[in-house]
């Protein structure tokens, strides 16, 4: 195809005749002129057709085009200071691929249910488009960070024989006559891999049968989980803050245009710089009491507590050393107070709450076995995991960061569902 171009790169094509392939975003006409707004996935550009400059039949073809009709357009690129991307095209030719039927999504306001049911089409609109570009850039920054820091990517399985994060929200499935579960976390496998590679991360979809409908829970979400042999709780926090600073600042730098489209005030995001404040769970309880937030020692924090705590700081905050009885079986108790576990959460500001959960792992075989029994977990399912404590056991720490929660925070979204291309929630599995 003749000088095929993408809208994003048109600035470097001024004066050239180019061909664009895309969809009709909008159009209008005025006498002997037709204006076509073309969308090609990389951007939107206006193409101006003047009656005397185009072959016969062109205006008839243009007049038949509906919103989202697919077309191939040839035109000459002209600088235009008033245009959004700084350029416009003088249209020379249009070829219609398909005339779209009446498109369900128009400029008028639609309700969230309608939009979610039409997610396969809604993706074309500017808002989801910007959010998913930000997600894509964030994920690349995540990979760049770990790949550039001596980590090895190890993909962990999705079919698993046992629970990592407790049995209450497991998705069960039949595996050739045996019970299997969709992975809640790659952590146990990442721990095994860290004994082979030292520093590893896994990154994939994870599944939790979250029966409550909240703005912060999906049943399928993506998690990034680094695991580092020999790291302790403090090393883990240092890694997490360095990682968040790099990824957030990279997205702010590279996605300024998308964030502007979302009208996101990025002042607070600019503050995401290491070091982050650190408070213990006990200190957090005191702080909540001071703030008049009803709470009791021993309870896990929900959204109101997390929001109140995070409000107290100008950047994300680490809360560490939670009551052991509300944390997973694999967490190492604090040697100075075994009723506490060496776990850590990172709370994002602006009401976004927990984006990271992790901690230091129990490295003693006997202690881990006892914890398994206390949690009512079958030893037989974890024999391989226990092996890691038999053959060169070392301190180890890691964490999991939820992609959708982090993207929702970066973009300033009200609900996690907009941070996934095709979100999965309790009452939604279509499209
Ligand atoms: O349950 S976590 O707090 N921790 C783990 O799964 C550890 N096994 C990770 C590790 O140490 N390797 O989940 C981690 C993060 C949490 O902070 C959220 O950001 C996200 O995973 N998360 C979720 N996002 C969306 N929806 C749901 N339901 C959800 N649950 C956790």
Rg, Cα atoms, Å: 26 Å
Q: How helical, in percent, are the residues?
A: 25-40%
Structural class: alpha+beta
**Span of the ends, CA to CA:** 34 Å
Identify low-pLDDT runs. Answer: none
CATH superfamily of the largest domain: Bira Bifunctional Protein, Domain 2
In this entry the ligands are: 5'-O-[N-(L-asparaginyl)sulfamoyl]adenosine
Determine the mean pLDDT. Answer: 96
| Number of continuous helical runs | 13
Q: Architecture of the largest domain, according to CATH?
A: 2-Layer Sandwich
- How large a portion of the residues is in β-strands, by DSSP E? 25-35%
CATH class of the largest domain: Alpha Beta
CATH topology-level fold name of the largest domain: BirA Bifunctional Protein, domain 2
Overall tally of structural domains: 2
Count of distinct strands: 17
| Overall outline | elongated
Order of H and E elements: EEEHEEHHHEEEEHEEHHHEHHEEEEHHEH
Largest sheet: 9 strands, mixed
Structure description:
This protein is α+β, with helices and mostly antiparallel strands. It has two domains: 7-98, Nucleic acid-binding proteins (OB fold (Dihydrolipoamide Acetyltransferase, E2P)); 117-419, BirA Bifunctional Protein, domain 2. It has helices at residues 58-64, 112-117, 119-122, 126-147, 187-197, 233-254, 256-261, 267-270, 281-290, 303-311, 365-374, 383-387, 403-411, and strands spanning 17-30, 33-39, 44-50, 70-79, 87-98, 152-153, 159-160, 172-175, 178-182, 199-207, 220-229, 278-280, 317-323, 333-334, 337-348, 353-360, 396-402. The strands form three sheets. Strands 6, 10, 11, 12, 13, 14, 15, 16 and 17 form a nine-stranded mixed β-sheet that branches. The chain has a five-stranded mixed beta barrel with strand order 1-2-3-5-4. Strand 14 (333-334) and strand 15 (337-348) form a beta hairpin. Helix 4 (126-147) crosses helix 6 (233-254) and helix 4 (126-147) crosses helix 13. The structure holds 5'-O-[N-(L-asparaginyl)sulfamoyl]adenosine.
